Amino acid sequence: MNPINIDVLVCGGGMAGTVAAVAAGRNGAETLLVERWGFLGGSATAAAVGQFVGWETEAGRRVIRGIAEEIVDNLRARGASDGHSHFVMSTGHRMDQVSYDPETLKIVLDELVTKAPAHLLFNTVVMSVARTERTINEVTVLTKKGTIALRPKVVIDASGDLDVLARAGATFLSLEEGETLQPATMMFRFGPIDYEAFNAIPTPEIQALAQRGVHEGALARAALHQSRVTGTQDGWFNVSRVSVDATDPFDLSRAEVEGRRQAFAAANFIRENVPGCAGGRLVALAAQLGIRETRRVSGNYILTVDDLRRGRTFSDVIACGAYPIDIHPTTGTGLGFETLGKDHSYQIPYRSIVPSGFDNVLIAGRGISSTHEAHASTRVMPNTMAIGHAAGLAAAMIAEGNIGARELPVERMQAKLREANAYLG
User: Fold this and answer.
1) Rounded distance between C-alpha atoms, residue 219 and residue 280, angstroms
2) Alpha-carbon separation of residue 58 from 55, 82, 223, 337, 423 (angstroms)
3) DSSP letter at 303?
4) Are 293 and 371 in contact (CB under 8 A)?
5) Cβ-count burial of 78 within 10 angstroms (0-12 exposed, 13-18 middle, 19+ buried)?
6) What are phi and psi of 233, to 5 degrees?
7) Do 350 and 406 meet the contact criterion of CB atoms below 8 Å apart?
8) Is 60 helix (H, G, I), strand (E, B) or coil?
């Protein structure tokens, strides 16, 4: 097959990549979205996280809007989400959320991308990358029909693990002394649940139950957190903890097995011990582990946890966030959870989605240029959708202007983001 020329190539159809493709397509770029699964959504669908958290400050000020909010509206219109709400985690922390049905989300994302318009290439993985100095010239992907050479003007690496940049020889940020990659989670759907009884459990009692589950070896962490599937008596449980380097194929394979083992052990404990759950069973497992952290690129600016805590402002802001600094340790059963303040938010600069050493590559998703601690906040899906919105728009502008990523007129991009209802503070 002859090489395919394209304006914008988005590698990875998770929430960040999907939004990036929509934004690029809407802004006139011929866009191709490559995804290894046969559907979009990534952690939201394949890993079945079941809820988006981190839309607003503790005081209720919404800092994520734009295309991300369109997705919520479409889910609500289909009866697949009740929209924005709040809940208290089994750890005692109050959180804002949007619960959703992962299966309906797949349809919503299909429609958004095809109407943008952008092209889709499912069941496809990146094989190799050809680079000349600061430019990626060609990305070779493997499909059911063999290999296809793609020649984009701009590449958006939205693969989560930054596989495109890894194959292109990019520089990544290292963990500091004492830091470890955050563990993964195997989500599972359990039901039916008597939600009247389940929701009536006092927080101290559910915390004690979680501690008991850890003590008995049935729970990997002291949590019984779940998100209800709209319109059903089932919930997706987020209670496992699997240490893994998801860029190592053998370690990832081991971790998938361990995640399923933990899920079944947790489901049995929940059925036998948690009020409202006696009639339930494990209904479904996520198709893959939910990965919190792997590679983080070295970009033109490294966002730090101090930037987040201080609410530092940036002239090249492209997105905002307000989610706490949420660090799951590799060992032990606890949780590091630092809230940022009553009405505190932070900004993410454009420079943090531009990898060092490249002129035609942008990042969308959890792998932006940030420290390990800052990543613990920026990694959540509402944030990555906002980042994806900016990356898609920026890529379209770079392709249209035939310019390098650093030459992008940031003020013009910011104006376009605001016109599209994005929040920049």
Assistant:
1) 17
2) 10, 20, 21, 14, 17
3) B
4) no
5) middle
6) -105, 20
7) no
8) coil
Q: Which two tokens stand for residue 78?
A: 């289909």
Query: For strand 146-157 and strand 4-11, is the pairing parallel, antiparallel, or unpaired?
Result: parallel
DSSP-assigned states of every residue in 69-98: HHHHHHHHHTTS---EEEEE-TTS-EEEEE
- Residue 217 in contact with residue 268, Cβ under 8 Å? no
- The gap from C-alpha 6 to its chain's centroid, in whole angstroms, comes to 25
Phi, psi (deg, nearest 5) at residue 389: -55, -50
The per-residue pLDDT string of the chain (425 residues; one tens digit each, 9 = 90 and over) reads 689 999 999 999 999 999 999 999 999 999 999 999 999 999 999 999 999 999 999 999 999 999 999 999 999 999 999 999 998 776 667 889 999 999 999 999 999 999 999 999 999 999 999 999 999 999 999 999 999 999 999 999 999 999 999 999 999 999 999 999 999 999 999 999 999 999 999 989 999 999 999 999 999 999 999 999 999 999 999 999 999 999 999 999 999 999 999 999 999 999 999 999 999 999 999 999 999 999 999 999 999 999 999 999 999 999 999 999 988 877 665 567 788 988 999 999 999 999 999 999 999 999 999 999 999 999 999 999 999 999 999 999 999 999 999 999 999 999 999 999 999 99
Q: Is 342 helix (H, G, I), strand (E, B) or coil?
A: coil
β-strand partners of 325: 338
> For residue 192, is the peptide bond before it cis, meaning its omega torsion is within 30 degrees of 0?
yes
* pTM of the predicted structure, to 2 decimals: 0.96
300 with 315: CB under 8 angstroms?
Answer: no
Task: Tell me how far apart the alpha carbons of residues 166 and 136 are, in angstroms, rounded to a whole number.
Answer: 12
Reduced to 3 states (helix: H, G, I; strand: E, B; else coil), residue 397 is helix
In whole angstroms, what is the distance from residue 89 CA to residue 94 CA? Answer: 6
Q: In which residue are the tokens 């990555």 written?
A: 384
